[in-house]
Amino acid sequence: MGIRKKGITRRDFLRAGTSLTLGGLAGLPLAEASPDRGGSKSRVVLVRDQNVLDGNERINPVVLEGMLDRAVTALLESPGPSSAWKRLVSPEDVVGIKTNVWPYLPTPEPLNAALRNRLIEAGVREERISADDRGVLQNPVFRRSTALINVRPMRTHHWSGLGTLLKNYIMFVPEPSWYHGNACERLGAIWHLPHVRGKTRLNLLVMITPLFHGMGPHHFSSRHTWGYGGLIASVDPVAADATGARILQAKRNAFFGEERPISPPPRHIAAADTLFGLGNSRPERVELVRVGWEDGVLL
Amino acid sequence: MKKALFLLLVFSTTGALSLLFARQSFATTLETLAAALPRSTGVWTAQDPDRTYDAETIFDYIDGAGEVYRAYNMRRCLSRRYTARDAPPIVLDVFDMGSFADAFGVFTHDRDGEPVDAGQEGLYRPGWLSFWKGRFFVSIYAERETKGAKEAVFALARAVDSSIGERGPKPEILAQLPPGGLEEQSVRYLHHPMLLNYHYYLSDENLLSLGPETEALLASYRRQEARARLLLVRYPGEEKARAAHREFLAHYLPGGEGGKAVRLENGKWSAAAGKGRVLSIILEADSRSLAEDLLQETGSLP
Prior knowledge:
The complex is a heterodimer of chains A (299) and B (302).
Chain A: H1 10-15, H2 20-26, E1 42-48, H3 61-76, H4 81-88, E2 95-98, H5 109-121, E3 129-132, H6 140-143, E4 147-157, E5 161-163, H7 181-184, E6 200-211, E7 230-234, H8 237-256, H9 267-274, E8 286-292
Parallel strand pairs in A: 1-8, 2-3, 2-4, 4-6
Antiparallel strand pairs in A: 1-7, 4-5, 6-7
Chain B: H1 2-36, E1 40-41, E2 44-46, E3 51-54, H2 58-62, H3 66-70, E4 76-84, E5 87-96, H4 100-108, E6 114-115, E7 120-125, E8 128-133, E9 136-142, H5 147-164, E10 188-190, H6 193-199, E11 215-223, E12 226-234, H7 238-251, E13 262-263, E14 269-275, E15 278-285, H8 288-297
Antiparallel strand pairs in B: 1-2, 2-4, 3-4, 4-5, 5-9, 6-7, 7-8, 8-9, 10-11, 11-12, 12-15, 13-14, 14-15
């Protein structure tokens, strides 16, 4: 009788002929079990603009708003942002904008403001819109929400490998630490909870000054951020996160001058694909549309 | 019978009192430390009040990194923020880890940086100074490094260092690391499988049955140009060590019985052997001879 295989080991990555860096991001060999989605790809738009930051690393709100418009327009292949937003939401919707308030790298306030503006222009009444992070379970707008916009910066994370769009929904559970097991692998389960499932209309991964390495209890050093000037948009949170992860990995390798895998491997991205069916994590299943500034794109 | 009851009463009372004193002394110690720490450093002044966190509330403070401190059995954390006009805030965090070993362990989680004269094995990287001393782990973080902030961070470090006073011994298991070619800065002391995976991804399952009762050491070696990674695990009992060894061979290193080196798919060599409560694993070595030599030197081979 053979021995039951116990989990995925380093040797599985080695046997698959891939490095831990690439394997960790693609979720190999887990990814081989990706559900069949009929070969459909997930559309991901990466918009970059070198003018979104001024010389003091402050965000230019006008440029950022323009990036948002270009991202949403390209994502939905619409003639302009107005029609794109009208496809994303309707005037009857109650919309929660799920932000991230981590003090060192929060969702930029100008982006929250731009999202509010676009939602209002699409016909959603102001009192039916709320932006929140830690308080979403108590927030009356979120409690009766029919639509969610998920927006946060990408960063490395001590326990999950990366702070991602997928991870941003951890505040939708009363005890986030319940989902910390095995590098937060089961974060995708949160997206299937009744008060979350099927509501997300748009995912925006903020890549303006991503954090590619953490140190110390606070896991932050401005030395480990850089002016990437990007915004990633997708309906598929897994594809957006996987794309952002590839950029952070490339930056780590360039900065450290050697292969430096994101640690721990962000298993929750691949698991959201293979275990929870939330989207596509593998690059060949991502249709990447690049808009704008190309220097140092790292993809 | 009466004598037995009397002794039981005495022991119960003594036990309860010592527990009470232990708790009081524990709390008082962190509070005493807080009282002894300076309220200002350079032009920076402490904001009131200090914050304290325990293993449950630590998430309110440092988000995901809280799991790292919990994995080292943190008891409490004292946090004080120093501010000054037109200068970056400086954040002092003192973690009471409850034991010398875990204070050392959590310090080894991040060993990048230049050695500095602060506490035990102080390290500095731009904006962040850390050290361990006794059962405390100390982190002093400037949100942006400036000349003045760096001086203030170092002054604060010296003050905290002298306030703690008592030094602590390193975990005994360190003595079992072969000295030849050991890269001291690479040594990590840990209990939790996630922390092993953080430093060296082995498996998404807890293949080695690591946990609060096990002590693990991860270390890198360099001999001439050849490199190797060694993992030592000490279990609470010999049977647990043997069981972990069997699991490791069955699921990760078939063919590695008797300490035989096995070639991995990347061309490197791995080997494992157990003796008593200790399991020694050469995770990767550039050559078979280095794997075999290093394993021999751990004393785990028969």
